[in-house]
Amino acid sequence: MRKEITANNSQSPYFLQGGGEMGKLIRSMNWEETALGNSDSWPSSLRTSVAMILDNPFGMYIAWSKEYIQIYNDGYRPILGENKHPKALGISTRETFSEIWHIIGSMFDGVMEGKAVGFPDFMLPLNRNGFLEECYFDFSYSPIRLDDGTVGGVLVTVIETTNKKKAEVALIESEQRFRTMAEGTDVLIATGDETSNATYFNKAWTDFTGRRMEMLVNYGWADLIHEEDKQAFLDIYLKAYEKREDWAGEFRILNENGNYRHLLAKGSARFRSDGSFAGYISSSIDITESKEAENKLKKSELELRSFIESAPYPIGVYIGEELIVQVANQTMLDIWGKGNNVFGESYKKILPELSNQEIFEQLDSVYKSGKAIHEKNKRLELVVDGKLQTNYFNYSFTPLFDEKGGVYGVMNTGADVTDLNLAKQKVEQSESSLKETILQAPVAMCLLREPNFIVVLANDLMCELWGKTKEDVSGKPIFVGLPEAKNQGFEELLTGVYNTGEPFVAEGVSINLPRGTAIQTVYMNFVYAPYRERDGEISGILVIAVDVTAQVLARQQIEEVVAARTKELALANNDLKKSNAELAQFAYIASHDLQEPLRKISTYTQMLEKHIASTIDEQARIYLDKINSSSSRMNVLINDVLTYSEISRNTELVTTVDLNETIENVLSDFELLMEEKNAKLHYDPLPVIEAIPLQMSQLFGNLISNALKFSRKEVTPVISISCSKINADDIAYLKPNSNKEYIQIKVTDNGIGFKQEQGEKIFHIFQRLHRKSEYEGTGIGLAMCKKIALNHQGDLNAEGSSEAGAVFNIILPVQQQLLN
294 or 737: which carries more pLDDT confidence? Predict the structure, then answer.
């Protein structure tokens, strides 16, 4: 059973505010039906922990008590999946994670004993979406302690790393598949890392060179290159590494028989999933026979080459069934991008990238059938100068017949029409680029077409912002697919941008949108920009939006706090008389109604000790000691409260006070304690001011006592007191009289200090930053000091550092203003 309690409902306590979806679920939960009971009775540490996780963007949950009752935030919600959420809220972790309790149960039990635990990339088999899956997490389990120091529950912080681990496994498997493939091929395959060092050579390489892999890695392979080829090839190789681009080159290398063989090598740049450069994969083939054949054919080709070179279009002649390149003019060689060392080579060998592009099949068909083939605007992928490029050609494959009528070769003529085709494609690509930009954008984006504003494209973030699926809105006018947005002013905005061509930008605009089964108000920053065709005509609206609901709500909350604080200050003067009366009444109760029972407790405890002195056991002795100790502390507390209540602004007690004498009198009181701690106190000459003498003694006595009490172990306590005039601008909040002179007295120590965010808390009555077992006191001393400073029309504040001790700034006027 749930009962709805909104964030603005007075029934919702402070620690259940905010928190998005989970905050709403937690507020609507009937906790009385759970083991935790009504939230009003929750321990303070549980309340603080709940408030902390609801405002935290990271995945966190609380498992409270030995029952491990669960409370979790929005960041943790995806980890539970649809199978466990929302029923996990308010039930035991044992039940929610029953499938892994044998793994994590002992960890939880250990944390309940005060032992924190955490692991990175920890695998847990979870059933969170209807099936068991391996999930990985960075997590920590920390104890949440109650006020008495015992552990009340477990705070769990989780970051899911499943996708990262799967990517790592996929990378390893990919590397293994590559090694398996490389070892099974006759092609010479090697890899290099991002520093240009060779890291792997396959079996074909070790067989070809007769060297073990460890002799080839790094630059061992380069020692086998012919001296005449080495520098030229290394220049190609290293230049490609600098530019992170593919490379290709030829060189002679020493084989296992001690002979130099010609290799054609090509390297393809590798990049990791994050876009960083990872090195190269290279493949090399032995082209020695082709090189030798090339040299034999050069003489017979001179005349034909001269004719073909003069042609204004690319021409090539390929001989025999192997289609050996006999002739190719410079235009053709430039198109191939393989250099001039292609003659005598098989067309198929020098252009292997064409193997899956129908070219080889067409050449074989022409050679065998004797029928020409003509193509127009044919797209071909060619490796030109070591780079894969896309080109478009009009070309012909024409059979060459011998004197007997048999086909002995194929003549290839053509024309590069790439520029014409690219110009045509640019128009098509602009639409594709826009689509990709919108879909991959890190912010919500969509494109609305024509005057009806039809949703032609919207990314996942925009659909999520709308609270709709793509099927709900795609292909529909925006106010048909998203009717909830009607009549909120957006019709006029869209029409204005479409008609005027002027973009519209807005920040923090509220809009009511569907969230589940309800309509909620969200806040957005958005831009409506006109989308223009190539001719400049507006054909739609490009929308970019960012959900800033969290920021706006946070700002509103701050404004509410500021307004409330302003109201409190305005009412402060009216409440002062009432507060003084209540304090006086409390002082009467403390001096009469509290002290009398306390004296009876102390008296009867002493009588009980004497009565059973001979029969009392050790445990009973401990209990009696605790009663005596508590009685003493209560007596000190009552006296401190009485002193605090008696501090008043009585102008009849104001007289001239030499603060130097005040310090000396205080030092006399603390003489024995300072000798015991070997403490040192230095103070500058202090002025004579108008003040209440007793209250000045109480002020400096409490501050010096505080410095001695909170000193560091094994560190000599040093207390310094300095004084200076203060600028009126620095105390404008006190509304000082322009005719009055103010001083600032700094009391500095080298003790344990405190965190700066606790600088206001320490002046609240009964506030303590440490346990009574660590440092004695009632938590009233600094509150008394603050009240004394205020009584004298001044102020007291503090600066804290856990490394450099504490600084207390006393601000006092030199002369007191008489009150009416």
Answer: 294
pLDDT at residue 126, as a whole number: 92
Residue 523: per-residue pLDDT: 92
For residue 52, give Cα distances in angstroms to 18, 28, 47.
10, 19, 9
What does the pLDDT read at residue 248?
92
pLDDT at 645 over 70: no
DSSP annotation of 355 reads T
What one-character DSSP code corresponds to residue 92? Answer: B
- How far is it, in rounded angstroms, from Cα 292 to Cα 294? 5
Q: What is the rounded distance in angstroms from the CA atom of residue 544 to the CA atom of residue 692?
A: 66
Instruction: Name the DSSP class of 692.
Output: -
Q: Which helix (H) or strand (E) holds 414?
A: strand 407-416
State the pLDDT at residue 644: 53
Tokens of 614: 């001979």
CA–CA distance, 683 with 701 (Å, rounded to integer)? 14
Tell me the pLDDT tens digit for each residue of 743-754. 999 999 988 877
DSSP annotation of 477 reads B
pLDDT digits (tens, 9 = 90+) for 770-784: 544 455 555 677 888
Query: Pairing relation of β-strands 69-72 and 59-64?
Result: antiparallel
CB 2 within 8 A of CB 27: no
Q: Which amino acid type is present at position 744?
A: Q
Q: What does the DSSP 8-state code read for residue 328?
A: E
Structure-model confidence comparison of residues 8 and 781, the more confident one: 781
| Residue 113 falls in which region: left (phi positive, over 0), alpha (psi -120 to 50) or beta | alpha
pLDDT digits (tens, 9 = 90+) for 609-639: 665 666 666 655 665 565 665 556 555 555 5
The CA distance from 180 to 189, in Å, is: 12
Long-range contacts of 108-112 (CB under 8 A, 24+ apart): 108/63, 108/68, 108/141, 108/154, 111/141, 111/142, 111/143, 111/151, 111/154, 112/66, 112/143, 112/151, 112/153, 112/154
Helix (H, G, I), strand (E, B) or coil at 340: coil
**Residues 478, 493: Cα–Cα separation, whole Å:** 13
CB contact at 8 A, 695 and 774: no
Report pLDDT digits (tens) over 563-600.
Answer: 676 576 556 545 545 555 555 555 555 554 555 555 55
- Global pTM reads 0.31
Handedness of CA 25, 26, 28, 30 (dihedral sign): positive
CB-based burial of residue 59 (10 Å sphere; 0-12 exposed, 13-18 middle, 19+ buried)? buried
Rounded CA-CA distance 221/241 in Å is 17
Nearest to 712 by CA among 675, 749, 746: 749
Task: Read off φ and ψ for residue 629, nearest 5 degrees.
Answer: -65, -45
Closest CA to 366 of 345, 390, 383, 347: 347
DSSP string, 105-166: HHHHHHHHTT--EEEEEEEEEEESSSSEEEEEEEEEEEEEE-TTS-EEEEEEEEEE-HHHHH
| CA trace torsion 139, 141, 147, 148 (10° rounding) | -160
What residue has token string 């892994």?
100
Which of 720, 794, 710 lies closest to 758 in space, CA to CA? 710
Can you tell me the distance from the alpha carbon of 817 to that of 737, in angstroms, rounded to the nearest whole number?
Answer: 9
Nearest to 288 by CA among 237, 253, 317: 253
State CA 580 to chain mean position distance.
51
Task: Say if residue 86 is preceded by a cis peptide, omega within 30 of 0.
Answer: yes
Alpha helices in 325-417 (DSSP H): 330-336, 347-350, 359-369
- The amino acid present at 68, given as its one-letter code, is Y
C-alpha angle with apex 443: 440 to 446, nearest 5 degrees? 75
User: Could you tell me the end-to-end alpha-carbon distance of the chain, in angstroms, rounded to an integer?
Assistant: 61
Token reading at 165: 């681990």
**Pairing state between β 688-691 and 407-416:** unpaired
3-class SS at 273? Answer: coil
- The total of other beta-carbon atoms located within 10 Å of residue 455's CB is 25
